[in-house]
Amino acid sequence: xxxxxxxxxxxxxxxxxxxxxxxxxxxxxxxxxxxxxxxxxxxxxxxxxxxxxxxxxxxxxxxxxxxxxxxxxxxxxxxxxxxxxxxxxxxxxxxxxxxxxxxxxxxxxxxxxxxxxxxxxxxxxxxxxxxxxxxxxxxxxxxxxxxxxxxxxxxxxxxxxxxxxxxxxxxxxxxxxxxxxxxxxxxxxxxxxxxxxxxxxxxxxxxxxxxxxxxxxxxxxxxxxxxxxxxxxxxxxxxxxxxxxxxxxxxxxxxxxxxxxxxxxxxxxxxxxxxx
Amino acid sequence: xxxxxxxxxxxxxxxxxxxxxxxxxxxxxxxxxxxxxxxxxxxxxxxxxxxxxxxxxxxxxxxxxxxxxxxxxxxxxxxxxxxxxxxxxxxxxxxxxxxxxxxxxxxxxxxxxxxxxxxxxxxxxxxxxxxxxxxxxxxxxxxxxxxxxxxxxxxxxxxxxxxxxxxxxxxxxxxxxxxxxxxxxxxxxxxxxxxxxxxxxxxxxxxxxxxxxxxxxxxxxxxxxxxxxxxxxxxxxxxxxxxxxxxxxxxxxxxxxxxxxxxxxxxx
Lengths: 276, 268
Known about the structure:
Number of helices of chain B: 14
Largest interface: A-B, 42 and 37 residues
Largest sheet of chain A: 2 strands, antiparallel
Order of helices and strands of chain B: HHEEHHHHHHHHHHHH
Strand content of chain B: under 5%
Helix content of chain B: 55-70%
Strand order of the largest sheet of chain B: 1-2
Order of helices and strands of chain A: HHEEHHHHHHHHHHH
Shape of chain B: globular
Distance between the termini of chain A: 38 Å
Number of strands of chain B: 2
Helix content of chain A: 55-70%
Oligomer: heterodimer
Strand order of the largest sheet of chain A: 1-2
Largest sheet of chain B: 2 strands, antiparallel
Radius of gyration of chain B: 19 Å
């Protein structure tokens, strides 16, 4: 099972390299624009932090750490494929059938589809570089345990984002046409909050770590890892815990939706084959 | 005869705008699902500014009240200050092919469609934000009544500059054969930083704002916001906007004429 999954990921990586080598001009243009997109998303809050020296209780270096953390999460998400970002469109347009007819479990198809590890290396690199740079001035005691927590937190943030996108994308099982682009909306909702949320009212903070868990993609795990003022000793486990809960919820919703899809199929195409 | 032509021209554009306004509702209220982001974004910004600019202090010409008004109005008018016509998407999915047959100029038919698409967000987000402003601790009124007409002139010019920038991006999409979403993503970042629609340019470090003030991106967003919030001299701002309208209109028209033969359509 694992060998076949790795084989498919390897095939994705090979195709990624082949596409880059065959379309060098476009590959460079895509890489540059992706880099501007992701690094630019970091730049704006950093500029504000540099201008004022802080945002709330966060010094500029801590904000760099937080944004670098978020950049690593988003570039890894992009490298892992676009299934979470396009789930509602796949379901809404009946393209889930293309996955279901493949001679392998659906989870493996979704997990390995669109694996492009070499498209986002510049963004990932700058994320890692900024994260490493920011640790120095913040005097974080880097131990094996801390690095382990960093890895667990990054993985948990990726799971949180994936689960959130899957849970919303599943709405297309019930409203294939109206909710066809809900994954895009959900992606915008969760991905663009890049400020420390400490000054935000408590009620809004709760929303941003639960219903729309943007805060779990960088703010809360960074705050816990850096042990900023107001952080409790168990805070570092909040993101992994949320990942387990949201992951279970997303799996349950997806199964419910898939059960419905098995009964109804796609209603987007007329008998003559045209999309409604 | 000329009057009849003008009437048909106007009716055609109004019909295009009406179809664009009502189209998203044909699938129910799902169209408003993407608007939540805008509420969250402005609530976060409004919560952060008081930690950076304490009440009573002034930073680079901005006190707390003007900067809150600036942020709120930037969100209320976000569609108008970050103009996106559907032309890039149409270039990508092939819909532009039939548009060449419409008896309307390419730029104005897409501008009419864009204006129609503003209706739903305006009703679902902009109006509620203005009504809720006092509850959020923000004064939504302009700095003075005398600035209102100047603000409206500046807003129209800002939209015109924005359409010209959008057309320039469409030309770029044709010239370098790049998916529009790729260019859009990069453009989002450049405009977010350089236009002042997100953070007032004067509050950027290293005097970046003094440079960005002269770019067309600032004429497309920062200028009307500064006039509204009372942090900029209206006449020089409007004069610069007029300059960019003239320059960009000529340049983009020439670039489009030189590039339209390179439009390649495959559908999608």
